[in-house]
């Protein structure tokens, strides 16, 4: 089977990257369902996709990205508008899946696809409802630990002895959960003591810990401080623009748009910290992990030589 895979990959080098992007668009369509239904406690399987008017959506009107373009963002049955966020999430997921395939070997790429899918889902649920469901967080943590054992290369373990590599990778994953959640908890408690009010929700504590199962403790450090930088940049842009538009920043507590459509975000709205953490965590996994690991290794060498 592996030989067939390598032969196909050699003769048709574009095939698997194209399939990964297509697969990402399909998963993105499913994530749209999860983002809307999971916070409501609804099944993500039944009923099938349907319009706000209640009419079921035919399969040919539910093709990721393409259907939205062909229908010009409107439902065929009643002409109601579909949010542009639907194809945007599908395109985002497709791009992330393609990046995973280009940047990693197949097994690690598949692990990355699971990780990034959870981040996308958590990001938009948090934007809409200011909460990250426990089921999603715990599922992210559990899948991270399990995949770390099955694919030790996820944490850079490649000695050639599977049992040893799996044990080390699993321990790295668990350590990522503990350090990530513990570090955020202490930061949250310190900020609360200084500001005399809650500065960070406990959901963010669990979320960073869950990310640590995939990206290790080094990745959680990147997520925490990188998320702070991203959040600072966001608000540095948001407040001047909101003043120009004469809009007062307000907090989005839950999705309240008509017919269950996703909340349309604008620069005048405050956003929770979860999306910033997710963006930083994704950047670490895709781009920054090599530099961050090298940085911490250098620090370890400096301390070891003293």
TrEMBL record:
Name one process (GO BP) from the record: signal peptide processing
For the Prepilin peptidase A24 N-terminal domain, which residue ranges apply? 22-102
Q: Which Gene3D superfamilies match?
A: 1.20.120.1220
Keyword hit for Transmembrane: yes
| Membrane disposition | Multi-pass membrane protein
Q: Where does the record place it?
A: Cell membrane
Q: Which InterPro entries would you find in this protein's record?
A: Prepilin_IV_endopep_pep (IPR000045), Prepilin_pept_A24_N (IPR010627), Prepilin_peptidase/N-MTase (IPR050882)
Sorted UniProt keywords: Cell membrane, Membrane, Transmembrane, Transmembrane helix
Q: Which GO terms describe its molecular function?
A: aspartic-type endopeptidase activity
Q: Could you identify this protein by its name? A: Type 4 prepilin-like protein leader peptide-processing enzyme
Q: Which residues form the Prepilin type IV endopeptidase peptidase domain?
A: 113-235
Instruction: Please tell me one Gene Ontology term that the record gives under cellular component.
Output: plasma membrane
Which protein family is it in? Answer: Belongs to the peptidase A24 family.
Show the stretches that span the lipid bilayer. Answer: 12-35, 84-104, 134-154, 174-195, 207-237
């Amino acid at each position: 089977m592996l030989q067939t895979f390598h032969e196909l990959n050699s003769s048709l080098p574009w095939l698997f990257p194209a399939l990964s992007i297509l697969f990402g668009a399909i998963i993105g369509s499913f994530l749209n369902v999860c983002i809307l239904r999971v916070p409501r406690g609804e099944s993500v399987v039944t009923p099938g996709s349907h319009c706000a008017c209640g009419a079921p959506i035919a399969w040919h009107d539910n093709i990721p990205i393409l259907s939205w373009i062909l229908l010009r963002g409107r439902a065929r049955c009643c002409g109601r508008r579909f949010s542009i966020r639907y194809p945007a999430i599908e395109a985002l997921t497709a791009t992330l899946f393609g990046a995973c395939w280009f940047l990693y070997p197949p097994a690690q790429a598949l692990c990355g696809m699971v990780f990034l899918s959870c981040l996308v889902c958590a990001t938009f649920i948090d934007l809409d409802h200011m909460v990250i469901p426990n089921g999603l967080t715990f599922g992210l943590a559990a899948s991270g630990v399990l995949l770390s054992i099955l694919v030790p290369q996820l944490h850079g373990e490649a000695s050639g002895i599977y049992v040893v590599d799996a044990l080390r990778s699993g321990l790295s994953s668990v350590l990522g959960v503990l350090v990530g959640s513990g570090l955020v908890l202490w930061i949250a408690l310190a900020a609360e003591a200084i500001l005399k009010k809650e500065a960070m929700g406990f959901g963010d504590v669990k979320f960073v810990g869950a990310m640590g199962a995939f990206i290790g403790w080094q990745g959680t450090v990147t997520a925490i401080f990188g998320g702070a930088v991203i959040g600072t940049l966001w608000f540095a842009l948001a407040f001047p623009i909101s003043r120009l538009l004469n809009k007062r920043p307000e907090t989005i507590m839950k999705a309240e748009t008509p017919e269950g459509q996703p909340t349309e975000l604008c620069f005048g709205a405050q956003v929770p910290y979860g999306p910033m953490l997710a963006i930083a965590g994704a950047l670490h996994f895709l781009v920054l992990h090599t530099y961050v690991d090298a940085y911490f290794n250098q620090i370890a060498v400096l301390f070891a030589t003293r």
